[in-house]
Design goal:
This protein is an alpha+beta fold and 147 residues long. The chain has one domain. The protein is built from two helices and three strands. α1 runs antiparallel to α2. It is rod-shaped and about 100 Å long.
Length: 147
C-alpha cells in the first residue's frame, strides 16, 4: 500500500487534478462570462443614452431654425413650425420663447430608447437651442464689410 497523499496534490499516475480541483475552471469561466455580459450591457446602455442625447440636440437645433425662419423678414417666430420639425425628428417641443434680443430659444426632448430609470437615468433626453437674426458687426458688417 502506498503512503496517503496530501490534499490537492496531483496524482502522478493520472497526470490530472485531484477530485477536489476538478470543475474549478468551469466556475471561473462562468464567472468571467457573467462579468463580460455585465460590461457589455453597461456599454450598450451608455451608447444608447449618448445616441438619444444627440437626437435631442439635433431636434432642438432644427426646431430653433424652423421657429426663427420668419425673423429675417420681420415676422414673429413660428413655434408651430418648430414643433412640427421636432415631431418629424421624433422629439417633443417643450418650450419655445422669443428672447429680448429677437432670437428664439427652444427646448426639445426625446424619450430614451432604452430607459434605465432603475439606474438613476431619466427617461427623456432634453436639449435647448437658440436661433435668430444676427445684426451689425456680429454678422460681419463693419468698416471692411458693409452690410
Amino acid at each position: 500500500m502506498s503512503a496517503p497523499r496530501a490534499r490537492h496534490q496531483r496524482d502522478p499516475r493520472r497526470g490530472s487534478l485531484s477530485a477536489e480541483e476538478q470543475g474549478s475552471a468551469t466556475v471561473l469561466t462562468v464567472g468571467a462570462m457573467g462579468v463580460l455580459v455585465m460590461m457589455l450591457t453597461g456599454a450598450l446602455l451608455v451608447v444608447s443614452v449618448v445616441r438619444d442625447v444627440h437626437r435631442a440636440r439635433s431636434a432642438a437645433d432644427l426646431s430653433a431654425l424652423a421657429a426663427a425662419g420668419p425673423l429675417p423678414t420681420g415676422g414673429r417666430p413660428s413655434c408651430a413650425d418648430g414643433s412640427s420639425v421636432a415631431m418629424a425628428n421624433g422629439a417633443t417641443l417643450t418650450r419655445c420663447d422669443m428672447l429680448a434680443d429677437g432670437s428664439v430659444e427652444v427646448r426639445a426632448s426625446v424619450p430614451l430608447r432604452w430607459s434605465a430609470t432603475w439606474a438613476g437615468i431619466p427617461d427623456r433626453a432634453t436639449a435647448a437651442a437658440r436661433a435668430g437674426v444676427v445684426i451689425g458687426e456680429a454678422a460681419g458688417a463693419g468698416p471692411d464689410h458693409p452690410p
